[in-house]
């Protein structure tokens, strides 16, 4: 084929002429660079290659990372991971080879991406998120994404979402908002972990997380300042009362003093807020993770104590009474998983009191069927949104729509096994969830989410809206 035939076949002469004319109209100081960029934008982008690998999450446990290539470049995403007992969520595919990573390797999931998913998606338009996600679901053919692995599917789904934003030349949060079909981004109120307990820390505290919500801030930037200052005042309070060893941190970056009661933890945080000067501007939240200490139909608040007296077992009614007192005595506005994952009865009873936001985490597992049941029976009033329990960006958006249709709160959440991927920050803004739970202002895999939100707010400038007092319904 001659040069002229090649030019004619691909209509290159016309495309180059259009690019030159555009450079002249724009009075481009660097015409070559302008023409190059113009030509790139004129070419519809498609997925050209997908390459996956095994990396380590924040706990040193393997997870999946993906590099997805289009004409516009390479887009990387990694899947966070949670506890292995998440029986109602999408299934992480693990190798089961105890000779490697204690059976928790993900080489099978990686192989599924490199050999099956890559072939199925190559040539697809990255802006068509729903088509990409459904192609993977059709390839998997299971209800819980257990064949290919939800960890494999999600990493590709997130990478494709990033590529779609690049193809449209818009920020990721804007692309997500477009996929959702609603106007305007909203910066969420951060639910900052300040004390860790439960299975996330080595102390005797049953509650998994005590968090602070800077609802009284005017901007996300101010919210992070308030949170950081309170966190460091808390460090000083704990050092005074429990020594420097009490300032060791748990999996989410919260301090882990050797305390054993809910009130001890809340008292420490309340004093730190007072020292920081943010009384009435910072509210409190708890992730009880009660499934971890539910035995039969009772709750063992001493489940971590080395010398248990056997006298701290609580019935569901006892727990409701305790939560009622805590919400009265402290500015607690949100409680996650106050009961076992299958204790619908007491969760519903507690929610009906209207004392605080009741968040379904282990109860719902971000599972659309369990969410629908909870909506119909008025069991709780907020969704804990964990993308790895769902498996695709498209399904995540649908679950959020279900929750918002019921006038529920939505808490975009990190996982105990986190990565350096900041995707959930853009997700929270794009879906206007109003709340994000990403851990303490400590540890890089947590801060990467908060720092991305700071960048987004700066980018939005005068158009930035912080959820603030409207954190449940921005």
Automatic annotation (TrEMBL):
<dbReference type="InterPro" id="IPR000941">
    <property type="entry name" value="Enolase"/>
</dbReference>
<dbReference type="GO" id="GO:0004634">
    <property type="term" value="F:phosphopyruvate hydratase activity"/>
</dbReference>
<keyword id="KW-0460">Magnesium</keyword>
<dbReference type="GO" id="GO:0000015">
    <property type="term" value="C:phosphopyruvate hydratase complex"/>
</dbReference>
<dbReference type="GO" id="GO:0006096">
    <property type="term" value="P:glycolytic process"/>
</dbReference>
<keyword id="KW-0324">Glycolysis</keyword>
<feature type="active site" description="Proton donor">
    <location>
        <position position="252"/>
    </location>
</feature>
<dbReference type="InterPro" id="IPR020811">
    <property type="entry name" value="Enolase_N"/>
</dbReference>
<keyword id="KW-0456">Lyase</keyword>
<keyword id="KW-0479">Metal-binding</keyword>
<feature type="active site" description="Proton acceptor">
    <location>
        <position position="386"/>
    </location>
</feature>
<dbReference type="InterPro" id="IPR029017">
    <property type="entry name" value="Enolase-like_N"/>
</dbReference>
<feature type="binding site">
    <location>
        <position position="287"/>
    </location>
    <ligand>
        <name>Mg(2+)</name>
    </ligand>
</feature>
<dbReference type="Pfam" id="PF03952">
    <property type="entry name" value="Enolase_N"/>
</dbReference>
<comment type="pathway">
    <text>Carbohydrate degradation; glycolysis; pyruvate from D-glyceraldehyde 3-phosphate: step 4/5.</text>
</comment>
<dbReference type="Pfam" id="PF00113">
    <property type="entry name" value="Enolase_C"/>
</dbReference>
<dbReference type="GO" id="GO:0000287">
    <property type="term" value="F:magnesium ion binding"/>
</dbReference>
<dbReference type="InterPro" id="IPR020809">
    <property type="entry name" value="Enolase_CS"/>
</dbReference>
<feature type="binding site">
    <location>
        <position position="336"/>
    </location>
    <ligand>
        <name>Mg(2+)</name>
    </ligand>
</feature>
<feature type="domain" description="Enolase N-terminal">
    <location>
        <begin position="47"/>
        <end position="176"/>
    </location>
</feature>
<feature type="domain" description="Enolase C-terminal TIM barrel">
    <location>
        <begin position="184"/>
        <end position="474"/>
    </location>
</feature>
<dbReference type="InterPro" id="IPR036849">
    <property type="entry name" value="Enolase-like_C_sf"/>
</dbReference>
<protein>
    <recommendedName>
        <fullName>phosphopyruvate hydratase</fullName>
        <ecNumber>4.2.1.11</ecNumber>
    </recommendedName>
</protein>
<dbReference type="InterPro" id="IPR020810">
    <property type="entry name" value="Enolase_C"/>
</dbReference>
<comment type="similarity">
    <text>Belongs to the enolase family.</text>
</comment>
């Amino acid at each position: 084929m001659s040069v002229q035939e090649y030019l004619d076949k691909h209509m290159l002469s016309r495309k180059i002429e259009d690019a030159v004319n555009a450079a002249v109209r724009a009075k481009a100081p660097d015409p070559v660079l302008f023409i190059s960029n113009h030509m790139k934008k004129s070419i519809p982008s498609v997925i050209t290659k997908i390459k996956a690998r095994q990396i380590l999450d924040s706990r040193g446990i393997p997870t999946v990372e993906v590099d997805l290539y289009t004409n516009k470049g390479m887009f990387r995403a990694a899947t966070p991971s949670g506890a292995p007992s998440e029986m109602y969520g999408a299934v992480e595919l693990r190798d089961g080879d105890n000779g490697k990573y204690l059976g928790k390797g993900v080489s099978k999931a990686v192989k599924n991406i490199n050999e099956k998913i890559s072939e199925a998606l190559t040539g697809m338009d990255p802006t068509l998120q729903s088509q990409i996600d459904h192609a993977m679901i059709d390839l998997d053919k299971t209800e819980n994404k257990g064949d290919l692995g939800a960890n494999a599917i999600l990493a590709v789904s997130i990478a494709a979402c990033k590529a779609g934003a690049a193809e449209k030349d818009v920020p990721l949060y804007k692309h997500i908002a477009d996929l959702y079909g609603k106007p305007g981004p909203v910066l969420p109120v951060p639910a900052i972990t300040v004390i860790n307990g439960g299975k996330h820390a080595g102390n005797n505290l049953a509650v998994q997380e005590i968090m602070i919500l800077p609802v009284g801030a005017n901007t996300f930037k101010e919210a992070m300042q308030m949170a950081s200052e309170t966190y460091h005042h808390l460090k000083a309070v704990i050092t005074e009362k429990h020594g420097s060893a009490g300032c060791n941190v748990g999996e989410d970056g919260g301090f882990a003093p050797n305390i054993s009661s809910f009130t001890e933890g809340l008292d420490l945080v309340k004093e730190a807020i007072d020292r920081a000067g943010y009384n009435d501007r910072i509210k409190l939240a708890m992730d009880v993770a009660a499934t971890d200490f539910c035995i039969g139909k009772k709750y063992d608040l001493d489940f971590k104590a080395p010398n248990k007296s056997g006298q701290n077992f609580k019935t569901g009614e006892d727990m409701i009474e305790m939560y009622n007192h805590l919400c009265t005595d402290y500015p607690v506005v949100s409680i996650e998983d106050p009961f076992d994952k299958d204790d619908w009865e007491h969760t519903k009873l507690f929610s009906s009191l209207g004392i605080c936001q009741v968040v379904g985490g282990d109860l719902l597992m971000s599972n659309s069927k369990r969410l629908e049941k909870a909506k119909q029976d008025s069991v709780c009033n907020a969704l804990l949104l964990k993308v790895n329990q769902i498996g695709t960006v498209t399904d995540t958006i649908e679950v959020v729509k279900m929750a918002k249709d019921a006038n529920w709160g939505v808490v975009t959440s990190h996982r105990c096994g986190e990565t350096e991927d900041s995707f959930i920050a853009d997700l929270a803004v794009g879906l206007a969830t109003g709340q994000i739970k990403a851990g303490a202002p400590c540890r890089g895999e947590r801060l990467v989410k908060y720092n991305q939100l700071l960048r987004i707010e700066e980018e939005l400038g005068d158009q930035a809206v912080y959820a603030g007092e409207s954190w449940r319904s921005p």
